[in-house]
Amino acid sequence: MTGSNFWVIGGEFGSMNFHKLVEGSAQVKGPFKTRKEAEEAWKALSEENRHRGAVRFSIVEEPQRVPA
């Protein structure tokens, strides 16, 4: 099995319920080989956008793949 990849995804949402991204604002960073690397990227993006209340980022883990 190969290891998981981690991604930082998010952007600006249309309202504070965080259900729908504003068109064109989506951001995807990665892949990162470790969660720690993804957390560092998440912290940097979050700090950069801290003044914008409707911007949110999350870390997601890509499922491990089984080679064919």
How does the SSE layout of this entry go?
Layout: E1 6-12, E2 27-32, H1 35-48, E3 55-61
Antiparallel strand pairs: 1-2, 1-3
Strand order of the largest sheet: 2-1-3
- Shape label: globular
Low-confidence stretches: none
Largest sheet: 3 strands, antiparallel
Q: Output the structural class.
A: alpha+beta
- The portion of residues forming beta strands comes to 25-35%
| First-residue to last-residue Cα separation | 10 Å
Rg over CA atoms, rounded to whole Å, is 14 Å
Q: How many β-strand stretches?
A: 3
The domain tally reads: 1
Helix percentage: 10-25%
Mean pLDDT: 92
Along the chain, the helix and strand elements come as EEHE
Number of helices: 1
Please explain how this structure is put together:
Pfam families: DUF4170. It comes from Rhodopseudomonas faecalis. This is DUF4170 domain-containing protein. The chain is globular. 21% of the residues lie in helices and 29% in strands. It contains 1 helix and 3 strands. The chain has a 3-stranded antiparallel beta sheet, covered by helices on one side. The chain has one domain (11-62).
